[in-house]
Structures are given as structure tokens and as C-alpha cells.
Amino acid sequence: MTLTAADFPVELSPGTWDVLRGDFPLLIDGKFVSSASGAAGVTHDPATGAALADFALGDAVDVDLAVRAAHKAFGGPWSKLSHFERARLLRKLADLFEANTQVLAELEVIDNGMPMWLAGLTARNNAELFHYYAGWAERIEGTTTTPPAHVLAAGEALTYTLREPVGVVGQIVPWNVPLSMACLKLAPALAAGCTVVLKPAEETPLSAVVLGRLIMEAGFPEGVVNIVNGDGATAGAALVRHPLVSKISFTGSTEVGKLIVRECADDLKKVSLELGGKSPVIVFPDADMAKAVPGVAMATFFLQGQNCMAGTRIFVHADIYDELLEGMAAFAGSMKIGHGLHADTMIGPLISAKQKARVMSYVDEARAGPARIVAGGKAPEGPGHFVEPTIVADTTPDMRVVREEIFGPVMAVQRFEGDDLDAIAAMANDSDFGLSGSVWTQDLSTAHKMAARVRSGHVSVNTHGAVGANIPFGGFKQSGWGREFGREGLDLYLETKAVTVAL
Ligand code: NAD
Fold it and tell me: Nearest Cα to 140, choosing from 497, 499, 469, 487?
């Protein structure tokens, strides 16, 4: 690629240029290599369409090599390292992350489209995540318990439990927050003592390659982490089917999640799933409007709405319906749309032309009525896959814009009346998904009662999507299986073994 500074609206840091001028190989068994077939993909800046880099495109052959390397490492040097040595490596990786946040953030912006302020935040959060799971690596412990009576009848005995790593783990991640998705799976898996084959999304391959370099620089043994960029239907499917993989951890669409479950039924691989969402936001008449207006708008428009926990079904009490709509329409209209490298950009591009067309199909359907578009509704002309932050008011529960995950900056607003919390919860829970949600009220009792009634894995009050390293996150219903982050995130990568000893 012959990229120049003119391809970007803001000067990239020298470190990012160094990365862009280098290769984007696979990481297999501690070595950076081309794909076995020699195939390469091209990744583009979604804000301009500029080709950024060629990257090695792995397939089933590369996945097989990577899984065998991970299998060898699992039974080899990695299994000999103590918990404390694993923690030390994770801390070293966290430090390297901190030292490279600018480069990692810039790569995320140009490969994915997210605004710079968000890319910087997520890069720093990833460093924190590795520190957090380093702590857990040091605290993995079993329990002792009373042996069964029939064993005790024969004499003294002892029962204890061991927590052991699951084995080789296949981790498949989407493009919406590429680096964070990879880190939030890698950190607990490594803390637990698993080895990993990571398959990043084909739309956003760049940051994972730098992540691989930092992992090797931190001193992780060869084969502990292998990274195979490649297509879902080839590399992803091969990883899911591989007999030496003990567990698949997947983040992505509900459709592909279901496919993976069917595939894993054959050899009963362990599976954890973080899938789609269509989260409710419930605004009561006593909400603090100064906070609710920007807070509810950002519940949808954060990351251009390409966010699994986006609050996109907005239920607003009739008493404040017009006031909130008016405030959010003004807020949406004020959001700066542009290249993520500009410091004041609030809405970057969607990931692809396909995603833009998909999002606009929902907007155009809503435009036909009877719902009303009160903000946005257009896709700006010119290069880049931009869509305006769009508010669709007066929606009804049966509309596609209300029922389906759009994964774009499109909010569907419904009006409710009265104060029957069970009836309000029934509306909010009328969805196949159950990932996130938020409640906006100044009444403590309403807040907690409503949080208890929302059927989602994560509920916020007077904010939305407040997740972090130590807060379990995952879905009810078709939003997934299992919880990532926190102790529960570690448990996804551990088996419990009970040992009974007749003394
Ligand atoms: P996707 O399901 O199309 O792809 C996700 C990953 O799966 C990619 O790496 C892709 O290459 C791979 N893949 C595709 N087909 C595969 C197959 N047959 N076998 C194995 N792997 C395969 O999803 P996407 O469009 O990239 O991402 C958007 C979706 O991800 C949305 O539905 C969103 O809600 C969801 N998501 C969920 C969370 C969460 O935490 N719950 C977080 C981010 C995104």
C-alpha cells in the first residue's frame, strides 16, 4: 500500500506509521507468518474508503497449525508456569498496552471508524483489564468439603476441588470494538491457564496483529496465543469444528451464534456466547431531564449504534414525551459527524457500505409511516459509510425498527402512560433479546423495582451501558450464554475437579 499523510485528516503518530508500513501476518506458534495459501485480504478506512493494508488471510490449514501449536503449548511450558508467573506476564502485557495506547487507538479509528476519544478510552481500559485478570490469576483456588458419608464410614477422608484450565480455546470476535473484544476474551483465558487461537473479524484485522506483537514482547511462551485473521465461513468455521479445541468463546450475531451451537453439538465443545441486543431504555416522568436528554441519546448513538448493548427501544412517559424528544432531536442534530481522527467527532462511519445500506433500509421503512422521523434520517453524500443519528418517534411494538437489532444510529421511541411497573416491564421485555437496559428516574424505589423487572444481563440507572473489567456482562434470552468480565468471566475458562481421598 502507498498510503500518505494525505489519506488522513489528522497526522498519525510515527508509531502508527511504522505499523502501517510493516506486514500484517498471522501469529502461529510464536512466529509471524504468511498464510499457508499465500492469500491476503485488504482492509479499508470506512471513513474514506482508502485501502489501509494487506493482511494475511488464514484458512482451515492455518487454523489447524494454530490449534496444534496451542495444544502443544497447553501440555508444555505453559502448564508448568505457576499462577504467579502467569500474572506477571499479564501485568507486563498491561504495561506494554499502556505504552502503546496511542498507536492502538489510532489503528482502531482508521480500521473501524470509531471516534478517537472512544478508541483512547478503550485502549486504556484494555490495559486495566489485563491488570485485573492478573489479580485473578493469583487467586484461583478450590475449596475443601466433607467427603460423602459412605467414604467416611470406612475411615478418615478428605475432599477438595481443583480449578483447572479448560484447554485450547477458540475465540471469535466481531468488528465493532475489535481490540476490546479480543482483550476481554484473552485476559481471563490466559489468567485461567488456557491457550488460545483468536480469530479477529475480517473487517478489522489490524489491531490484533499489534496485540500479537505485544504478547510476544511480554514473554508469553510460543503457541500460548495464536492469532489467525480470516473469514468467518472458512477460518472461523474451521476453528469451531477443530477436534483439539475444547471451548469456543464467540461474540457476534445471534444468527452465527446459533450456527456455532449446532456445530459444537457434535463433540459437545463448551460454548459461551455474547450475541445481539435490542435493549430497552425506560424514562419515567420524574427523570432529571438535563441528564436524560444526552444520556438516552448516547444510549443509542454511542459507537454509531454499532454496539451490542445499545439502548434502541426507548419507552418514554407521556408527561415528558415531547420534551425529551425535542431535547434529543436537538442533541442528535448537534453531533459532529466525521472522520474519527478529528478530536470533536461524535459520529464516525459505519463499518461498510453493506452495513450502511442495511441501516438505511430500516430508516426508509420507518419514513413510510405511520412513525415519524424527528432527527436525522439521511446518509450524507460523499465517501465513507456515514448515517446521521436518527430518531424514529411514535413507533409501535410490531414495527421492524423496534423488533430487530439494526446495529446503526437509529433510535425507536414509544410512549407509555400510567405507573404500573409490571405493565411497563412487560413492554420493555417484549423482545427476543436481553443484553442491557436502563431506567431513568429520581425515585429510588422505582429505580430498583424496575431494574429487578427488566429481563437483561445488565441494567443501569440514570446512565446506560456502564460496563467494566469487574462487572459481569452477558445476555438473557437470545443475547447469549455466560458472563464475561469479573470473576464470572474467569469461570468461563475453568473446569472444577473434585478429589476425594480415603486417608
Ligand atoms: P458476525 O456474527 O457476522 O461475525 C462475528 C465473528 O464471527 C467474525 O469474526 C466472523 O468472521 C465470525 N464468523 C462469521 N461466520 C462464522 C461461522 N460460520 N463460523 C465461525 N465464525 C464465523 O457478527 P458481526 O456482524 O461481525 O458483529 C455484529 C454482531 O455482534 C451484532 O449482532 C452484535 O450485537 C454482536 N455483538 C455482541 C456483543 C456482546 O457482547 N453481546 C458485542 C459486540 C457485538
Answer: 487
Number of C-beta neighbours around residue 51 at 10 A:
14
**Is 274 a catalytic site residue?**
yes
Q: How confident is the model at residue 281 (pLDDT cuts 50, 70, 90)?
A: very high
From residue 347, give the alpha-carbon distance in Å to each of 224, 494, 500: 37, 39, 58
CA gap 189, 73 in Å, rounded: 14
484 close to ligand 1 (CB < 6 Angstrom)? no
Q: Given this model, what pLDDT does residue 224 score?
A: 98
Give the integer Cα–Cα distance in Å for 254 and 474: 13
Q: List, for residues 469-478, the tens digit of each pLDDT value.
A: 999 999 999 9
- CB proximity list for 452: less than 8 A, separation 6 or greater: none
Residue whose entry in the numeric block shows the C-alpha cell 408527561 = 319
C-alpha cell belonging to residue 92: 507486563
Task: With a cut of 70, say whether residue 98 has pLDDT above it.
Answer: yes
DSSP secondary structure string for all residues of 51-104: EEEEEE-B-HHHHHHHHHHHHHHHHTHHHHS-HHHHHHHHHHHHHHHHHTHHHH
Helix H or strand E encompassing 297:
helix 289-301
pLDDT at 1: 66
**379 and 388 Cβ atoms separated by less than 8 Å:** yes
Q: What is residue 501's three-state secondary structure?
A: strand
Ligand 1 lined by 174 (C-beta under 6 Å):
yes
422 — pLDDT class (breaks 50, 70, 90): very high
Residue 424 CA to residue 331 CA, distance in Å, equals: 26
What does the DSSP 8-state code read for residue 195? E
pLDDT value for 233: 98
pLDDT on residue 42: 98
Q: How confident is the model at residue 382 (pLDDT cuts 50, 70, 90)?
A: confident
Active-site residue (options: 222, 274, 388, 405): 274
Cβ 482 under 6 angstroms from ligand 1 = no
Axis-axis angle for helices 178-192, 83-99 (nearest 10): 160
Cα–Cα dist 417/284, whole Å: 10
Contact residues for 145 (Cβ-Cβ < 8 A; gap 6+): 159, 160, 161
State yes or no: is 308 an active-site residue.
yes
Please write the tens of the pLDDT for every residue from 290-333: 999 999 999 999 999 999 999 999 999 999 999 999 999 999 99
CA dist., res. 374 & res. 367, Å (int): 10
